[in-house]
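Appendix C reproduces, verbatim, an entry submitted by the partner laboratory led by Prof. M.T., so that reviewers can inspect both the input and the predicted structure.
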Amino acid sequence: MGLIRGLYDWTMAKSAHPHAQWWLGFIAFIESSFFPIPPHPLLGLMCLAEPRKALRFAFICTAFSVLGGLFGYAIGYFLYDAVGAWLLGALGLTDSFAPAACYLREHDWEVIVVAGTTPVPFKLLTITAGFIHMNLTTFILASIAGRGLIFMTVGVLFRVFGAPIKRFIDKYLGTLTAVFVVLVIGGFIAFTQLAGGEGDPAADRCAAVTQVQPA
């Protein structure tokens, strides 16, 4: 946790950097493949500071997140045994890899969109998609849809309601931080339900998968 906290503080400090936009793009890129801290808090701080540029920031975050997803895809496609497996282990996602592969094979682009718009670790799906050789065009389009939906929504909200949202966050920062943590934990739980509701045979089967074969 100390390491994660240090990385979080380092990430948030970039909001005041003279080249904050480049840092936003960089962090969005690496988060999609291996970095544990999502770009959402940094995007929020930058939008708070300059609401008129919120849409620009959101676009940067979306574009670089999709590019980072392609990097994660390449790791899974070409370097899973050498790099991908170690990364997932370091991030605590090894046990989620086999279910993720099963869900992707069963539901294709829908899983990428869901992962792109929820706290489910996007890097897990990018690496897994490469490993199973998911159709690249489908992967790119689904990544744009998922990442664009969440980041551009943030941009639009801050562009339209910048000042009121800033006052709200200043007042309820502690509560919002706690909610964010709960959402992250809930994302891991929700991952087992990506394929559907109760009684879905594919969901039950994928949740129990422990091994996966390459494409």
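The chain has a mean pLDDT of 82. Additional entries are available on request from the coordinating office.
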